[in-house]
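Collaborator request, handled under Task 6.
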Amino acid sequence: MADTAEKPQDKYRIPLKRAAVDVKRLPDGSLILRSPYDLPEPANDIGVWLRRWAKEDPNRLFMAKLHRSDTTTPSWEEITYGNALNQVRAIAQALAKRDLSPDRPVLILSKNGIQNALLQLAAMDIGVPAIHINPALALDPNQLDSFKHVLDQTSPGLVFAAEGKPFEVALHYAAEQEAEVLLGDMPIKGLKSTNFKKFTKAWRKSAAKKARALVTPDTTAKVHFTGTSPNEMTAIVTSQATMCANHEALAQVIPALTTRPPIIVDDAPWHRAGSGNLVLNAVLRNGGTLYIDRFGLDEGDDVSLVSPSPSIHITELVPLYGLISRLEENVLLRKTFFRNLDLIWIVSGMITAEAEAKLQNLAVEQINCQIPILTSLTGTGTSAVNTARYFATDESNYLEGNIGLPLPGTYLKLEKTDDIENSFFELKVKGFDANGGPALWHEGRVSQAETDEDGFYAINETVRLIDEMRPFKGIERISRVD
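Structure tokens returned to the collaborator:
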């Protein structure tokens, strides 16, 4: 039976979905939670989204990357949906002509950028996994062993860096392991490499078309490595099905994603599964625009020249707290930030009541209404958003640890154990990943992570229901489980 919030909140200028959850109580006191909202049939793969918007509105801006310089005014490098599809097809053809496969994937070293995104999309378009690692592993000599560990685990056939020189030592090692080196700029003397522009010039597309025809929802799309030391690293696999279903679910409970194409200003690192599978795909699924930059965190910026006004601000806690301080200090920044803002979405974190009050006071001052501040949780070891606080809360039930409710298509088990207090549960998830738990990558092979007898995967979180009599109030995150 569904448990649903009694009425929507009207304090925002956009509608929010009503909180709702189905609850099944097990004999041992554990709970199974699911969303009663339907999950529409997802796309086969995320390449479907790119083709849709390139056909419907090829001149719509897809991505822009901010370039800063000490001598010139900051400027945006831009690409439209139509141009992005043309380049993705060309790059896919260049990749398809090489000896690349799930056994010989594409490894990306650089931070977020347009070339980075195009290469990921092209690789996934033909069923070649895109592996995005923390750039520090390839930049810091003290972490070179971790970089070598990643190469040993993945055996990439192609390694990409937007700028070669900073990654010189790592790229020499990759070349010694028979990986082709692809560079956007700054070639390295004595190291054979291919320039990225060459990949965008391919004109015959037959090999890419044949490879794309074999892509299915179960095809491995990405691999993200957690941790920074070889002994602590876990390689989390994301399938096309996981990405597509997750963003269909988000679109069902966050209407602002679909009511108008979202404008997002963000550079949350793509090497992490939470942000790497969230931000770019939120834009791509909904025909929006991504400005790759952290909004308002560079005090040298002239806001009137370089900062677009976001409609959805996806962020993490540390940059959000820094942004609040700058918003309080800078009138022009406040006007720019709140002008078109529909909501703020915090990834895997809960804002304090004090910080939320500051934000809401600033919002009311600028636009005469409050801004919904939503939260979500991507559990450790998973590659999808598992829960979201997509609904309004009021002061009487506000809790800083409220991680919301399960998304459509996701099941949560709140498991009673003897090791925790009576009112607390261990949180487990089952959802978009095949067989419930996430898939892991080990020595070039995909295997399922360990799950319990019901197919649920433990994400090492202790939680409780905020209100046991009214489960739609949400789930409170208590602590990590060792």
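The cover message to the collaborator said: "The radius of gyration is 22 Å. The first helix runs from residue 47 to 56. Please let us know whether this matches your experimental observations."
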